[in-house]
Amino acid sequence: MILNYIKIAWRNLLKNKTYSLINILGLSLAIPFALLSFMQLAGTFEIDNFHNDTDRIYRIITDETTTEGNKTSYASSPFLLAENLKNNYPAIENATKIRREFSWELNNRLKTLRVNTLFIEPSFVEIFNFKLAAGSLPIEPNTLIISNEMAKSFFGEDTNPVGKTLNHQNYGAFKITGVLKPFKRNTQFRSDVMISMATYNQINKEAKSDKSWGEYEMHTFVKLQKSAKPQSLDLAIHQMAQSSNESLKLSKKSNQFRKQAFNDISPAVEELSNNPYVESMTDIIFNFSIPLMIILLAGFNYTNLTLARSLSRSKEVGVRKVMGAFRWQIVFQFICEAIIIAFIALFLGFVFLQIMKEFIQINWVTWEVENQYLIWLLFVGFAIFLGAAAGAMPAWILSNFNPASVLKGVVSPASFGKISFRKSLIVIQFVVSMVFIFWIGHLYNQFKYMATENENYNRKGIFNITLADNKYQLMIDEISKNKNVGKIGITSQPFGGITAQNGIKAHINDENQATYYYSADKSYIENMHLKFVAGNNIPESKSDSTSNFILVNEKAVQSLRLGTPQEAIGKTIFLNNKAEMRISGVLQNFCHYNYQFEIQPLVFQYNPSQFHIISIQTNKNTDEAQFLSEIKALWKKHYPYEQMVSSWYEKELYEHYYPAEDMKIMGMASAVILIIAVMGLFGIVIYSTEKRTKEIGIRKVMGASEWQIVNILSKSFMKLLLIASLISIPIGYFSGFVILKLFVFHTKIDIGMMGLFYGVIFLIAMFTIGIYTYRASLMNPAKSLKVE
């Protein structure tokens, strides 16, 4: 019986090729996004699935509560926790801590690369399955092990890196003690180099002090004994919290620790601070929302076209019911058709997914999963569900037709009041399409603003060079003689990246407040075109000594309660508890790093020991290629054995802030949504025109021109487009405010861009309507009047 249903369904698909093609193409364009989301979901459950004994491994979470009652939950924990748990509680077999740092740069004197860094203890590899391909673990200060991929990037395929050194601009030379075997990218311990914890202890002298109980920079993992119960760990961390809270009374806060099973870390059900490389359920839901919307639109097409064809298939339903068919049999027949369409679309969608894989390179996208059987089971189950869901409503409506009414020709499709259900679906499709495209447009507008704006600081004509050592003055003098050079500044870190954080306070007995810190000279401030609201720039100097004069932003003045910017000039503050600094100028607040973050205190100081970047302001109309060649020649003269690391600042920030690959996939989603909506409209236009074939013939015989017929046929569809416009434009406009609200520093809503998008969508829809209605108007009346 089922085979007969499939045969009938297949014949109906072949009989109605146009409608079948529209449904199949619509679904096949939508399905790749759904399949990709399924793989992302499967990937989140495969994070760190290559370790042993994960049922005995737990991560320690910290809940910090202030005296005001504010609570923050961290995926991280204090430095001293792991060691205390390991040494004092027999139920714990092993414990380890790790510390993650971003934006490190290492060089081997020939090339400089940005690396993902992890500080580890030897116990880390005892608990987790990271194996060495060569060498030994890093134990001594300034030692590290390197990933197989990064070793090849630094030293090539044939060179053994063990024993060689990599250099950090602040922390000196690091000896490579080992090379890691290749490991899964899908891990929360993603890293290029793993550095000895002894290095961290050397850099942070106060790491082992009691004050560190209030800092949550470490991720602590505990492995229980085979015979130990999880409750023993609860007791241990509760006791540790009670004893450590004595050290936090002056900080006006307290801590509580709790365990989290290792297998429960990903996906993250709870929102935790400091939880890198672990995808949250919120992100997963968001990632599913767009494919779900696309699939719904494609499902609307199927429902819409099936209902539109309900009159032409009503006699089929009536005859089958007269012949004794039950309602469930008719429903099953229509659902079979939808499932066949879904399976054909699944095959084409998988082909489209492979094409997407070749053209889109996004680090966070998972293109492969380990459990192929599960993912294919999901794909097949999804196709069956999609077909059943898309076919259920039209099947239920059509199967409900009264045979007597059908055979008398007095049946019509279901409707919602004055606007038919089919027309409602067309309006919904175009509303969703336009709103989504407006939404992508607002995101594009904001990303482009971040990548190209020149309001917060100057990025035009700036050429940056990474310093090789602290003997740079002679080279700067030679660069200044170049005819294309304006001013040359020096800084610790260019804007746009993560910079150092220090503590500042107005009085020696006050608590420190966090501030971003830049070391810079007077020329760098001028090159960046930073705006002063009070005072003057830091004094010009070529000395090797650190200056006691600093610049602060308005937020720092406000946080330290120094009065107005004018009143703050000349006052002293304390930097890092001991250094007394005098404020020479107050800068207008500006975004120096992340456009989403609230404005934070900011300090600039002339500190030559922290200088790492030469910032060159070039003149207008400088030939970039020629200038680069000239600077490289100067560099080779001073550093013949080292490769120059440089960039044009404007291009670097564009690549940093503009997510080209992300926008590519979002653009593809927008195009697919619009195509699906247009295909749905196209199908309804074809059907409506076919149903009015005789009417068209009569009107032409009575003397109607082609354009009059086009106007009559397209008028109802024009109304639908106008209704969709009236709904979507206000929603699209206000969605821009929602998106821009996510960014502290943002651009304005681009009305012109919205108008352009609307015009393009409207013209495409009008062309779709016009081209087929005009074609219908050219039909020979003699032929059209013969149509039954």
Distance between the termini: 33 Å
Strand content: 15-25%
Helix/strand/pairing class, anyone? alpha+beta
Number of strands: 24
What do these coordinates show?
- This protein has 788 residues and is α+β, with helices and mostly antiparallel strands.
- Helices cover 48% and strands 18% of the residues.
- Strands 3-4-9-6-8-7 form a six-stranded mixed beta barrel.
- A hairpin with a 4-residue loop joins strand 1 (57-66) and strand 2.
- Helix 8 runs antiparallel to helix 13 (421-452) and helix 10 crosses helix 11.
- The radius of gyration is 34 Å and the shape is globular.
- It starts with a helix and ends with a helix.
- Mean pLDDT is 83; it is low at 413-419.
Which helices and strands occur, and which strands form pairs?
Layout lengths: L1 H14 L1 H29 L11 E10 L4 E4 L6 H8 L3 E16 L4 E9 L1 H6 L4 E4 L7 E4 L1 H8 L9 E4 L3 E9 L12 E4 H7 L15 E6 L5 H15 L8 E9 L19 H28 L1 H13 L4 H33 L12 H28 L3 H6 L6 E2 L2 E2 H32 L9 E5 L6 H7 L5 E7 L8 E6 L7 E7 L2 H6 L4 E4 L13 E5 H6 L5 H4 L3 E4 L3 E9 L14 E4 L7 E6 L5 H15 L7 E3 H9 L2 H32 L1 H9 L4 H36 L9 H27 L3 H4 L4
Helix pairs in contact: 1-10, 2-8, 2-10, 2-20, 8-11, 8-13, 8-20, 10-11, 13-19, 13-20, 13-22, 13-23, 20-23, 22-23
